[in-house]
Amino acid sequence: MSTQPATGQQGDIAVDIANVAKNYGAVVAVKQVSLPIRRGEFLTLLGPSGCGKTTLLNMIAGFEAPTAGTISIDGHDVTNVPPHLRDTGMVFQNYALFPHMTVFDNVAFGLRMRKVDKQKIAREAEAALDMVKLSGMGGRRVKQLSGGQQQRVALARAIVFGPKVLLLDEPLSALDKNLRTQMQFELKDLHRKTGLTTVFVTHDQGEALSMSDRIVVMSKGEIQQISKPLELYSRPVNSFVASFIGEINQLPVARLKRSGQAVAFAFQEGVTLEAEGDHAHLDDNSDVSIFVRPESIDVAGVQGGPGNVVKAKVVSHIYQGTHTVTRIETPGLGLLDMRVGGGHIIDQKPAGSPIDVRISLENAVVLKASGAK
Ligand SMILES: Nc1ncnc2c1ncn2[C@@H]1O[C@H](COP(=O)(O)OP(=O)(O)OP(=O)(O)O)[C@@H](O)[C@H]1O
Ligand SMILES: [Mg+2]
User: Fold this and answer.
1) Which of 5-14, 167-176, 306-315, 340-349 has the lowest mean pLDDT?
2) What does this chain do (predicted)?
3) Most buried residue, 19, 87, 227, 241, by most Cβ within 10 Å?
């Protein structure tokens, strides 16, 4: 098998995507993306359907050629190198297994293509199956397997030849919730064991937050933010990311008012919320967009606490087992969702009830309204 020379593997960057764009005729699938992927990291591409995730992955794997820009793996420009010489293992969005072949033959396929000798194929295929907890299942036909098992075969097939980079295109999206959670753990486990640089694609923000070292949020072929999960959740850089990551309320546009050290936000209908923090990067009298998570709004209790107490009316409840999402209407602030522990609020405050709520702005995301991306 012919590979790239082994020099240049010492750097921290496993895959370097530099100014890459992809057009399909008039459709701009990927606009202009630069993304250095660190060696050994679990990186997730996250974004809504059609934002260019699969296209970017296909360009890393070599199944699509960029319209512009370059892709390097281990310091070698592979932009014009065919897929089977790139050392990338891929799990496709739709399994793309060979349904009539056995599990073993599916896994061995890539090794046979690479003309590896028979004994080695047997050894490595079994090792890969063992890695995904399918040892001894090599003789089964793929169509006799469950969805989760098929997904493991696809994984085994992607890792069997020891790729430098593992590319996973929504590998868990077809699985039911329990199986999906289990496979999430197993994927992380596999990543820990192999240390493989992994690029994982999902449009499920919860999955991205729980699995990733870093998350790349994409929209319309462009990167919006690259951050660690916690930072992405607590400090989204623009309204797209704020709305896409986790549940969040966007308040109506407000005017920021400074008075000495204190900062307040003035809404329509004379409603004012006092800010926490100085928001030094925002000008006095500027228009701001404020995002508040449902867990930052609670029923105002007898004892005080940080935050602003406002009067509202209950619109509806959605019981979710551990908590209830209660939708309230607040003059000046519109409809807001709040998250209340347990389910007692459903009987205590039926729809239509007046309710005093406390809105904490401690973790609110405050962005410039005009010109904000
Ligand atoms: N072969 C193609 N020919 C023409 N347009 C394409 C082709 N492949 C993708 N596109 C377009 O490029 C854009 C990005 O598609 P892509 O498949 O990369 O999105 P995605 O983020 O993977 O979406 P999903 O979450 O639905 O899988 C879309 O507008 C899509 O219609
Ligand atoms: Mg896709």
Assistant:
1) 5-14
2) Part of the ABC transporter complex PotABCD involved in spermidine/putrescine import. Responsible for energy coupling to the transport system.
3) 241
Residue 1 scores a pLDDT above 50 = no
Work out the percent of the chain whose per-residue pLDDT is above 70. Answer: 95
Mean pLDDT of 152-162: 90
Each residue's pLDDT tens digit, 133-155: 899 899 999 888 888 888 889 99
pLDDT (0 to 100) of residue 370: 62
**Calpha distance 317→2 (Å, rounded):** 61
Residue 68 CA to ligand 1 centre (angstroms)? 17
Residue with tokens 């967009």: 289
Q: Which domain holds residue 309?
A: 249-368
Taking a C-beta distance cutoff of 8 angstroms, is the pair 42, 212 a contact? yes
Band of pLDDT at residue 371, cut at 50, 70 and 90: low
User: What CATH number is given to the structural domain containing 196?
Assistant: 3.40.50.300
* Residue 45 Cα to ligand 2 middle (Å): 10
| Ligand 1 pocket, mutate which of 24, 59, 94, 167 (most atoms under 8 A from CB) | 24
CB 100 within 8 A of CB 143: yes
Protein residue with its CA nearest to atom 19 in ligand 1: 50
Our answer on whether the CB atom of 27 is closer than 6 Å to any ligand 1 atom is yes
- Segment 297-326, tens digit of pLDDT: 999 986 667 789 999 999 999 999 999 999
Ligand 2 centroid to Cα of residue 303, in Å, is 50
- 243 located within any domain: no
- 3-state secondary structure labels for all residues of 278-327: CCCCCCCCCEEEEEECHHHEEECCCCCCCCEEEEEEEEEEEECCCEEEEE
Q: Is residue 19 part of a domain?
A: yes
Residue 281 makes CB contacts below 8 A (sequence gap 6+) with none
Ligand 2 is an ion; residues with CB less than 5 A from it: 54
> Whose atoms come closest to the Cα of 216: which ligand?
1
For residue 303, the tally of other CB atoms under 10 A from its CB is 5
Instruction: Quote the ligand 1 centre to 50 CA distance (angstroms).
Output: 5
Q: Which tokens go with 352?
A: 């239509």
* 5, part of any domain: no
Look at residue 113 in the predicted model and tell me its pLDDT.
Answer: 83
Q: Please count the other Cβ atoms lying within 10 Å of the Cβ belonging to residue 267.
A: 19
Does residue 361 carry a pLDDT above 60? yes
